[in-house]
């Protein structure tokens, strides 16, 4: 059975404790196991705000807590997605991560240091570390990856926002991706041995861009595919012609790119309303900010291309209001046309 894992802060410790940190995914499988067109089936909403004194509007970017006053992070653990809604929340503002703007977390085990890293946005790209994923009080206070916003981002961000940091390492280097809500995906690089130091203006490049900012918007994530040769999958959230969210996809043989389109258009998309089946009336038209369920928990950020599952945020299509107070909930899509 495949693990959990993905939920950035919805860090299913369950998965972490149940699953080996080493992999069980065959090492000989080729990236060719990925299909070039995708079909999915979705659950209903699995995780939403609790009825408690926090009075949250949404649970999103698994797992930011959202309300009109702003964002922070939540941790929960479970062993079965169908029981996820019963898991208690631990609000991470009670840990040394603290209160204030913290959002869009990613979590992984950095094997060279035997430490868990939580990567998130605070206006800069921030991280905390923890020796024990099952102890949400154990996260360290935020530190930033960059001394300040890299100049290439400042030059290109326009009226966008610097959001959605994502780390992934290969055998030699670690890479930090981020988006600007203005048509650019950025990548910075440092040596594996230097992580988490060494991300600078000079090491930052534009990894992907589009003149139409809606086409390369935000919530990007990069995964390693198992196999004899290096192979990677990039997902980027886009805004469709009707305003709903969907994901585009690319592959590459290096995390540094270049990225080749896989299912990368609104007509042939990775995941969105047009290729996700629901039972009954769809509870959401957007397939928005999410994460693949991983097959490994370490810094390689590896997934099993034969059993794709994506934990995403969706929303009642009739909901309205300011962006921070929208009622995002988390659901899970599972690929139904896997090639293997
Ligand atoms: C993890 O889940 C179990 C079962 O619901 C719960 O008893 C435990 O307190 C949770 N751990 C944390 C750290 O929240």
Summarize the structure in short:
This protein is mainly β.
Structure description:
- Its main location: secreted.
- This is Alpha-L-arabinofuranosidase.
- It holds the Pfam family Glyco_hydro_62.
- One of its GO terms (cellular component) is extracellular region.
- By secondary structure, this protein is mainly β.
- It has one domain (3-335): Tachylectin-2, Chain A (5 Propeller), CATH 2.115.10.20.
- Residues 1-30 have low confidence and may be disordered.
- It has helices spanning 13-18, 151-156; strands at 40-42, 58-60, 64-67, 70-75, 90-91, 103-110, 115-121, 125-130, 143-144, 163-169, 173-179, 184-191, 204-209, 218-224, 232-239, 245-252, 260-261, 276-277, 288-292, 309-314, 329-335.
- The structure holds 2-acetamido-2-deoxy-beta-D-glucopyranose.
- 2-acetamido-2-deoxy-beta-D-glucopyranose binds at residues 77, 87, 90, 134, 136.
Order of strands, widest sheet? 18-1-21-20-19
Beta strand count = 21
Distinct small molecules bound, one entry per kind? 2-acetamido-2-deoxy-beta-D-glucopyranose
General form: globular
Count of alpha and pi helical runs: 2
Sheet having the most strands: 5 strands, mixed
Average pLDDT over all residues: 92
Helix content: under 10%
Strand content: 25-35%
Kindly provide the radius of gyration, computed on alpha-carbon positions and rounded to a whole number of angstroms: 18 Å
**What order do the SSEs take from the amino end to the carboxyl end, as H and E?**
HEEEEEEEEEHEEEEEEEEEEEE
